[in-house]
Each structure stands twice: as C-alpha cells, then as structure tokens.
Design a protein that fits this description.
134 residues, mainly beta, Jelly Rolls, eight-stranded antiparallel sheet, 1 helix, 4% helix, 49% strand
Amino acid sequence: MIVRDLAQARTGDRCVTGADINGGPGWESARLLLKDDAMGFSFHITRIFEGAELHLHYQHHLEAVYCISGEGSIEDLATGEVHSIKPGVVYALDQHDKHILRATREMEMACCFNPPVTGREVHDETGAYPPPAD
C-alpha cells in the first residue's frame, strides 16, 4: 500500500515548478505517484497559477486532467476550439494533442500520465516531457 500526503509532497522533492510562455510562474506540480511506484501511471496535483499561459504538447505521454478548483480554458491547436475549464470538468489528451492551457483564476488540477513520469520532468521548448527511459 502506498500512502502519501499532499502537503508533504508540496514541500519536498516531489514538488516541481515551471514557467509559463512569458517566463513567469506558470505551474507547480506535487507528484504523488511516480514511475518507481509501479502503478503504470503517475498521479499529480498541479496548480496552474492565475494569468499563466502554457503551450503544451505531450508527444510521449497521454494525460487526463480533472479540475478541482479555479477557472481557465484549454485551446486545441489542431482545431482552434476553446473549452472552458472549471471545477468538475475533465479533459483527456488522448491524441498527444498540442494545446494551450490558460488560467484566469488559479486552477488546481488532478493529473494522470501514461506512461508515468519519474518525478523531475519539466517541459522542453516544444511543451513536452522527454520520452520515458525504459
């Protein structure tokens, strides 16, 4: 059995931060389950800071995200569609979708990644995490 505390994860080495497109604070991710936990996915609670604009493209991972709190939008760059994000909304990047995530009010999100991340990944210049090492 694995038991982890979110507050502890936010103050330890399981907490990773990244910038938005303008170099400002963009996000903070408390990574509660990682590849080494051998669950087949990783699970994170991520804050997207108010005003952040994140250009993302998970080329090597699939992601599902559930909004716990806050408000924003996600733009599908293939179609131009913009979807509102608010508490209770889930989105799944099932096609390695290139997207822009915007927070109009700080958002707290529950995120699952497949394959799981190792814990220290940050987005590269394309908005992706590096490919998983086998």
